[in-house]
Amino acid sequence: ARLVVLVSGSGTNLQALLDAVAADPRGYGARIVAVGADRDSIAGLERAERAGLPTFVCRVRDHATREEWDAALTEATAAYEPDLVVSAGFMKIVGKRFLARFGGRFINTHPALLPSFPGAHGVRDALAYGAKVTGCTVHFVDDGVDTGPVIAQGVVEVRDEDHEDGGVALHERIKDVERRLLVDVVGRLARHGYRIEGRKVTIQ
Ligand code: GRF
């Protein structure tokens, strides 16, 4: 399967996918054909370039409207003919056009156990709530914010001392689990195929 990965930051989830492909190019079942971002000068893009992959940047502020940005992101992504698109720390909500084109094959990873703590601050919000366990969710993207069908989740315990650094160490422990979960899920989706029936996702 051909993957396009979208990033906004450090790209450690992208790196985990790159490493999985490099470790077993045939066996993994998927390969990354391009990496896209909504901003430039980020470590995620450097990781892609280091791996010799084509990259594209689609910034909201370079477009007159959000719809035009969405159309540009859709075209830039579609140019690489992906079977799956992975939002790996991509901090933008895509629009109608993107979903019409990639719905059902666009997955996201979120650093909380959805439906708890959706949105941009999943780690901080779980901590502030006083949750004793949190984790990560890999899910298909629909037109809500972190509301699409869940594919897999991983659990991480919150420690008392997590309240002292505002969730930095907790997020690192979540990302540890998240990277492994994402690599596993993407590989299985690519190798086995899958069905989405309502909210139920079955990997075949
Ligand atoms: C991940 O925890 C992802 O869920 C999120 O931001 C983090 C991205 O990390 N919302 P990286 O860019 O893959 O290192």
From TrEMBL:
Top-level lineage group: Bacteria
Keywords: Purine biosynthesis, Transferase
Leading EC class: transferase
Active site (catalytic residues): 110
Site, Raises pKa of active site His: residue positions: 146
EC number from the UniProt entry: 2.1.2.2
Pathway where it operates: Purine metabolism; IMP biosynthesis via de novo pathway; N(2)-formyl-N(1)-(5-phospho-D-ribosyl)glycinamide from N(1)-(5-phospho-D-ribosyl)glycinamide (10-formyl THF route): step 1/1
Protein name per the record: Phosphoribosylglycinamide formyltransferase
Catalysis performed (reactions): N(1)-(5-phospho-beta-D-ribosyl)glycinamide + (6R)-10-formyltetrahydrofolate = N(2)-formyl-N(1)-(5-phospho-beta-D-ribosyl)glycinamide + (6S)-5,6,7,8-tetrahydrofolate + H(+)
Domain Formyl transferase N-terminal: 2-186
Species of the source: Streptomyces camponoticapitis
Record's keyword annotation contains Transferase: yes
Keyword Nucleotidyltransferase: no
Function: Catalyzes the transfer of a formyl group from 10-formyltetrahydrofolate to 5-phospho-ribosyl-glycinamide (GAR), producing 5-phospho-ribosyl-N-formylglycinamide (FGAR) and tetrahydrofolate.
InterPro entries: Formyl_transf_N, Formyl_transf_N_sf, GART, GART_AS
Binding-site residues, N(1)-(5-phospho-beta-D-ribosyl)glycinamide: 11-13
Residues annotated as binding (6R)-10-formyltetrahydrofolate: 66, 91-94, 108
Pfam families: Formyl_trans_N
Similarity remark: Belongs to the GART family.
